[in-house]
Amino acid sequence: MITVRRAAAIAIAGAAATVLSACGAGQVTQTDTKQSAIAGVNVDAGDLALRDLQVEFDSTEGYAAGDDAALRVWIANEGTEEVSLVGVETGAGTVTFVSPAAQAEEEAAEAASSEPADDASASDEAADGAESTEESSAPADDATTEAPAEDPLEGETSFDIPITPADHVRLDQGVENGDYLLIEGLGEALVPGDVIEVVFVFSNGSEIPAQLPVGQSLEGEERSYYEPEEAAEGH
Length: 235
Prior knowledge:
alpha+beta
């Protein structure tokens, strides 16, 4: 089972990567994981380069169990054939694909279809109101029950995100109207310093594991400066 690990795992992985790079210069591995200078993790696997992988920063308190957490993912295709991201597996929760632009279009279409006809006259509306009053006491035998509309804010659990050769996709909630991946219903609380294990699944059969840390705030924090105590008498 994929579990949440603490920041010590990141430090150990970074130290191990440093030792391996020093001892094994010139060797090329199929999957190369690197801790970048920023909070995200970089992973190279064949023609695919995954960059700045992390759980988006939410607050210093992190996420509570049951919350939803967005991921930040960059994927570049350095090969000659198109490949698609078709799934993300993790024991932390269910990963869905969210497209704000597509959701906005769907909501606009639903709003347009629900608008009343402009050519309806006041007299017709009054007559319809009277008829509806008379018929309100009679059972509506021909009434049909419509299935509730699907929530447009709910992500797609199955997705196909194409990445063309010599190009990349950016999945980042921080980009205005940008697509992103969302972990829904976290099984455990997540705080800055934790990491989760995920596997990125691609259409060419590649399954790339990675450890994603919970991101840190990019905004400058207020600093408290040290104030020395008053010197004791006689010094």
